[in-house]
Amino acid sequence: MGRLEFKFNSERKHFIVPAGIRPLSPATGPPLVTAEFVLDTGSNQTCISETTATSLGIDVDNLERRQVGGIGGIVSHPFIGNLEMFLIGDDVVRVKLPEVTVLPEMKRKIEKKKGVFVQRGDLKLPAFNLLGVDVLEQLQAKLVIEMKTKKGWIEW
C-alpha cells in the first residue's frame, strides 16, 4: 500500500498533486516529464495542458479532436492516447492512461480604461493539468482531504 501527500495552493484554492507522465512508448518523447496536476474530482478523465503535451514531444496541432463535455458546455479538444502516469509518494505507482484530453491555453478579451485611453487585447491564461477520477479508480484509491489543515493524501 502506498500513500502520496499533496499540497494546497492557497492562492488558487486547489490541491496540487505532483506526478510524472510520459508516452507509453518513450521513444516518441522525453523519458519522463514531471508536472503539477490539480486534483479534480469533478473530472472523470485526466487532462494535460498544451504546454505539458509539447514537453512530451507531442505535436498538438496534428492530434485527433473529440467533443468533451464540462462545466462550460460541449467543446472540441485534442486528445492523446497511451500515456502513463507515475505517482511518487512513499511508494511509486504507475497508472496507464488510455486517453487524455489536451487543454488549450485560455484566452479572454480585455478592455481596460485609463482616463481617455482604452487598452484592448487578449489576456492569456495557462491551462492546468487535471488529475481526474480515472486515476483514482484505477488505483482503487482512498482520497482524504482535511480542509481544516489544508492537507490531503491518496492511499492505494
Can you tell me about this structure?
The strands form two sheets. Strands 1, 2, 3, 4, 5, 6, 7, 10, 11 and 12 form a ten-stranded mixed beta sheet that branches. This protein has a two-stranded antiparallel sheet with strand order 8-9. The chain is built from two helices and twelve strands; from the N terminus they run ββββαββββββαββ. It has helices spanning 50-55, 133-139; strands at residues 3-9, 14-23, 33-39, 47-49, 65-70, 73-88, 92-103, 106-114, 117-125, 130-131, 142-146, 151-155. By secondary structure, the chain is mainly β. The model has no long low-confidence stretch (mean pLDDT 90).
Task: Looking at this protein, list some descriptive labels.
156 residues; mainly beta; ten-stranded mixed beta sheet; two-stranded antiparallel sheet; 12 strands
What is the structure about, briefly put?
With 156 residues, the chain is mainly beta.
Distance between the termini: 5 Å
What does the radius of gyration come to? 18 Å
Strand count, sense and closure of the main sheet? Answer: 10 strands, mixed
- Mean pLDDT across the residues is 90
The helix fraction, in percent, is: under 10%
Structural class: mainly beta
- Low-pLDDT parts are none
Overall form:
globular
Secondary structure: number of strands = 12
* Element string (H = helix, E = strand): EEEEHEEEEEEHEE
Tell me the strand percentage band. over 45%
Instruction: Determine the number of helices (DSSP H or I, runs of at least 4 residues).
Output: 2
The oligomeric state of the chains shown is single chain
Annotate the secondary structure layout.
Blueprint: E1 3-9, E2 14-23, E3 33-39, E4 47-49, H1 50-55, E5 65-70, E6 73-88, E7 92-103, E8 106-114, E9 117-125, E10 130-131, H2 133-139, E11 142-146, E12 151-155
